[in-house]
Amino acid sequence: MRNGKKSEENPVALLPILVFLVLYLGMGLIFEYGMGIQMAFYDIPIVVVFMAALLVACLQNRALAFDGKMAVMARGVGDKNIMTMILIFLVAGVFVGVTGRSSAEAVAYFLLSVTPAWASVAVLFVAACFVSTAMGTSVGTITLITPIAAAVSNVSGFSMALCVGSVMGGAMFGDNLSFISDTTIAACSTQGCAMRDKFRANFKIALPAAAVTLAVILFQSLHAGVGQIDIPDYNLLLLIPYVLVLIGGIMGLNVFVVLLVGIAAGIAIVLPTGTVDFMSLLKSTKEGAAGMFETIMVTILVSAMCALIREHGGFEALLAFIRRVFKGRVGGRLGVGLLVGAMDIATANNTVAIVMAGPIAKEISQEYGITPRESASLLDTFSCVFQGIIPYGAQMLMAVSAAGGAVSAFQIMPCLYYPYLLAAASLAYILIGAGRRSK
Predict the structure, then answer these.
(1) Is the pLDDT of residue 419 over 70?
(2) How many CA atoms, within 13 angstroms, populate the side-chain half-sphere of residue 64?
(3) In this predicted structure, what is the pLDDT of residue 3?
(4) Max CA separation in the chain (angstroms)
(5) Residue 144: which residues within 8 A CB-CB, separation 6 or more?
(6) Residue 378 in this model has a pLDDT that exceeds 90
(7) Is residue 403 within 8 Å of residue 165, measured between CB atoms?
(8) Where along the chain do its domains lie?
(9) Fewer CB within 10 Å: C terminus or N terminus of the chain?
């Protein structure tokens, strides 16, 4: 956008996105499936690939001097929403570092101890829902709960695919709804809406999908012959930080205040109870914050790249294409969902997909009269649908690894009830609910 005027349509300006997708997806597929390297998608230096794409964006539009391009990128990176997103990422990382593994395991063991053995798989799903909503990370939830699911499968007689698939479904439920999830932070920040508003919009879609998923799992479990499950010792006090974060988020308190309260509560519990010592706690907070560094760098690079693409007319070209293909209010919403879905398939990372699709989705929303909370909800929901299904995503790869290789991705995929039902609920919302014009 130059001097307050819209840039002319220029499809060539979208070339940096194409360069990124070809490099990242191409190398990932070659290494993962061509050469059989496990977790290859997550060994590819995504920051370096984005730097290559940003270089392509800088080489375009010779009419604008390099200093002018630097100014455009600085405006994109210096946006208030981008700074807010980065700070929330860091504080959320510290919270996860403080609460750690023991809190998540306490949730699962507590629920398993108060329910009959035949409902164990349903308990795994509910536990994963709670832990991922509180922790804000689907991969972290899968890492912590999948070994428990594998143990349940080994002693109960439930299939490993069903147990692991139920954990993955619950993990994606929380990834979609959590107030401190990378995806929630990215979706709300790029669309400019409050997390509470996005949560309410998301809840209408996610809750029916989760309820039906739970019913399906319980129905499958009714006639299964299960053995007794031994429950290790656990500390219920470790659940308090999660509960405080959930309550504070639902009440609509400032996300920084909510996270700081959760961190303070976590420290006040883990140190006196001897869960960790002081130096181990410091190390955990450092690792939690450091775990967000790559996401923060991707956010900065994507913001700079998208600013140049918008300046060069790439967004206008993409919007023109969407106007031709998608018509009306339903079409606009479907366009937002499919846009982030396509980005997720290409990047195998739902947070990166939202950061990339977010600025374009905001333009689409303004064009089609979609509210910020609705567009944020669509971005997060559709990214979680695709991320929860693709066999080369971090969630699936981590689940297979945490299960000790006892089950394959393609065995788990038929048992991913929640992502499939979330997709159905999202389409039903778009076709029925979104057809009503908002006040």
Answers:
(1) yes
(2) 19
(3) 47
(4) 72
(5) 101, 104, 105, 108, 131
(6) yes
(7) no
(8) 11-435
(9) C
